[in-house]
From TrEMBL:
GO biological process terms, semicolon-separated: polyprenol biosynthetic process
Annotated InterPro entries: UPP_synth-like, UPP_synth-like_CS, UPP_synth-like_sf
EC class of the enzyme, as a word: transferase
Claim: Glycoprotein is one of the keywords in the record: no
HAMAP family per UniProt: ISPT
UniProt gene name: uppS
A Pfam family reported for this protein in Swiss-Prot or TrEMBL: Prenyltransf
Active site: 30, 78
Cellular component annotations (GO), alphabetically ordered: cytosol
Organism: Phenylobacterium deserti
Protein name (database record): Isoprenyl transferase
């Protein structure tokens, strides 16, 4: 990752006019259950349709020159769903990688799965490690799949690692700042998201990228995830382009106007 991508302010400024297009888009893939219910189908078929929407959206994002896409596939809270649904959700990465990993590898996509490995089956962990290894050399497009991921858990684990380093004399409390802390998160290899999209009409983050969302623009769309596609992503990008990003500062024009 280019150094400027790490810092949202420097990144956007250095990219100038390009800043009207997000470098990194993150999506809460929500609404599979409702999509299925409306059709009188089991929820599992909503999740499978969600995988198809993911495929469409990855292609659309790459075509729209987005470089980083992070999608929320399974949260640390999703374990509380009925066992049969959890099993169906656990099968989705396999379904996706079996059909798409060869093409993703060929098309220059680097795949990373962020989140806890603890709790996942050995077979799933191996599948994830293989997908990551197969695409590790790619740099054209970065796809992060948040799976068994929780923003709070990620922050707590980063804090615990730092506390252990201090206890072992490998770090001093004063070494901790926003940059060093962000470097401990599971998303440390990615720039912060510029845009977080949530379809399905719900308007909350649901424990997704809590630290990383500090200066992200949020866009909520009234479409269920299985229906999501290029036109919805394009609409989200248009909303983003109309937003004024100030990162807590004021715009130069406003400074002049204030005298
Ligand atoms: C939330 O919708 C969605 C999920 C918990 C699963 C999201 C997963 C996918 C879309 C496929 C992911 C693919 C991979 C490769 C991991 P919901 O079921 O809570 O919908 P509802 O709010 O309408 O009930």
């Amino acid at each position: 990752m280019a150094a400027q991508d790490k810092n949202p302010t420097a990144g956007a400024q250095a990219r100038g006019a390009e800043a009207s297009r997000p470098l990194h888009v993150a999506i809460v893939m929500d609404g599979n259950g409702r999509w299925a219910k409306r059709r009188g189908l089991p929820r599992s078929l909503g999740h499978r349709a969600g995988v198809e929407a993911l495929k469409r959206t990855v292609s659309a994002a790459a075509e729209m020159n987005i470089r980083w896409l992070t999608v929320y596939g399974f949260s640390t809270e999703n374990w509380s769903r009925p066992a049969a649904e959890v099993a169906e959700l656990m099968a989705l990465p396999k379904r996706y990688f079996e059909s798409d990993i060869a093409r993703l590898e060929r098309e220059g996509v680097r795949v990373r799965v962020v989140g806890r490995r603890q709790g996942l089956s050995g077979e799933l962990v191996k599948l994830i490690e293989d997908a990551q290894a197969r695409t590790a050399h790619n740099d054209a497009f970065h796809l992060n799949i948040a799976f068994n991921y929780g923003g709070q858990a990620d922050i707590v684990e980063a804090a615990r690692r730092f506390a252990e380093d201090v206890a072992l004399g490998r770090a001093r409390p004063e070494d901790l700042n926003e940059q060093t802390f962000a470097g401990q998160l599971s998303t440390a290899d990615s720039p912060p998201p510029d845009l977080i999209v949530r379809p399905s009409g719900e308007q909350r983050l649901s424990n997704f990228l809590l630290w990383e969302a500090a200066y992200a623009e949020l866009v909520f769309q009234d479409v269920l995830w299985p229906d999501y596609g290029a036109e919805h992503l394009k609409a989200a990008l248009e909303i983003f382009a109309g937003r004024e990003r100030r990162y807590g500062a004021v715009l130069a024009d406003d400074v002049l106007a204030a005298g």
